[in-house]
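User: I'm new to structure prediction. If I give you an amino acid sequence, what do you actually give back? Let's try with this one:
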Amino acid sequence: MLSTMTSATPLSVRAPVKTTTTTLKPILKPSSSILGSRRSSDDAGLDEDDIDSLQNPRKRQKVEFDLNNIEIHEIGARSVEVIKQEIRKALDSHDQGDDEDYDMLKETLSGKQIASYDEDDEDEVDPALPAKRRQELKIYLVSLASFSPRMGRSCDGLVKSVLQCQWLGRDEQFAKIYVQFLAALVSAQGTRLTQVLSSIIERFTDSRPSDWAVPNYPTVDREAAQERLHVGVRYLLQLFPSAKAALEHVLSTKYPFHDEPKRMHLAYVDNLLKLRRYCPELGMDIMDLIISRLVTIDVEMQMDLDDMDDRLAAMVAMALKSSRDNGNQDGEDEDESDAESVASDESEDDEYTRVKKAKENIEKMDTVLDTLFEIYTPSFANPQSDEALEVFEDLLSEFSNTILPTIKSRHTQFLIFHFGQKSERLMDAFCGTCINIAFESQRPLILQQAASAYLASFVARGAHVPGHIVVNVFEVLGSHLDQMRTLYETSCRGPDVRRYAPFYSLMQALIYIFCFRWKDLIRSVPDEVDPDDLSSYLDQEIEWEVEIKDIMRRNIYSKLNPLKICAPEIVEEFAMLAHRFRFMYVYPLLESNKRLRLSQFSAGAYSTGGALRDLSFDMNDESWQQLGSFFPFDPYQLPVSKRWVEQDYIHWQHIPGLKPDEGEDESEDERPGEEEEEEEGVEEDTATDDEAEEVK
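Assistant: Good question. You get back a string of structure tokens that encode the predicted 3D arrangement of the chain. For your 696 residues, that looks like this:
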């Protein structure tokens, strides 16, 4: 061990002076770490070849290291002892209030002074000087390690300069010495642990050689730079096991903000996943972090798209196509050339910014989700295995704690949708989770409603969800619906979404399931029905599964009047299907509901209209007193990652002959109260009227 280096051993303990030279050893003896257990450099990622290059620097440079001094055979380089004296003098002067030498030391250790020498005119500077300066910076780090116990709060500026040193873009030996210096600093100054980890983790967003390049050094490629980062993290984690708790916090605080460039997000996630491989203890925390931040981007992306008109949405689609055609999906080339096609006039800067932001958010979502699908897939190779269930339970935890409480999440939930359909065991786990949340009275109302929507959407849209599960879920929900109706009807004066929201959200869930999975709710059909011809089911005497009809009839015609509260577009589709399948005829009820004002039944201040006047609401606009039509598994639209789920969901199927032809008169007893003009109907691929667009 160099006498000029520090370890966890007290500095007063010196090795005896030797007359022969000895190879360079790591700054910290792993066996003497005060925070960690015994580790080898090989365990930390500093393999034998790496250590050998440090221990035998003569293989690369003419520098010999002795335990008590360094003999520099390369002309012009100063010894460790000389540099140690310089550092000691600077620190002593700094303690006395004289910062001239201290500031020069900070400049030197930041690496900037070396760069300035490299940029001097070649005619005026010794051509060998840049190499000597680079070598000298290594000796500064080796020497500074001896002073780690003095680098407390009074030396914050010096520590900051060293941590800002651009070490990734230098040679391999420098990177190893730098990592060992960091370990020495943490060993002597335990409070610096978070600061040191932060200095490494903040480089996780670097993705281009220019981010870490140093003048007059060979270019270091991305893979090599990332490997150096992870060698550093792994080394610190193995020397100081307590660092894991600090690292978890640092990973969260250093995660790029949602509006940071796409390349930064993708680089950070890539590095997090590399970290997850060698630090499995943080695996769940890392995935939780990625998914929670992904949900944030997902919501913002969807809100931005919802605020755009059709023209801007089309521009986003054009920008995405241009990016894919140019091979720029990975975000490495941030030249913005792909977005210039959507807006080039200066007067359209605002539109250009909105389009570019939406495009980047979509690509962030798309790439990260594609990666997550790929990571999780091997765990479900045998979907009946305990491993698959264990991983799925982790996903369920992410779903319950992060995705479910978030309004407007649009794509992140498809992880659970895709893997939840791998086996009936996993389907049961997901459906059970949703049912428990939906019917636990202590849960917030918004979570109960969201759970009902997720369950209905999963069962309705899941292409691999078998018919008997559809029937079972329908009956379970129907049973709970009956219980709610019995409880609520005693105090019910009329439909009121504020007082009876759980009932209405559950009723809407059943209607939604019926619209998509009506074939699975049928017990038998007449012989003339062709299962491959949907139109052959129309106007037939169909036998439905036991209780299905009664459940719907009891609750639809109750005092709670759910068809007045449920989303109008879903109610309209249900009414049409129920009528043509001779399941139920609800058009007279819909007609009478048109004359019913929800405000007369609203609870609290709303019953007097006071709140309506205060908020300047239109008394004729009752949409705010009705349920929204959000169902979370409407078709997946991200262009790249959709390959994972394209076979997972049921598309909306148009039934020929269900709607009357345009211009054809329809008798009043078939469709009472319908407007003369053609109905908007249901767009392809969705049960709502605003989800069919490719981007939205």
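You can read the tokens as a compact description of the fold. Here is one thing that stands out. DSSP finds 25 helices and four strands in the chain.
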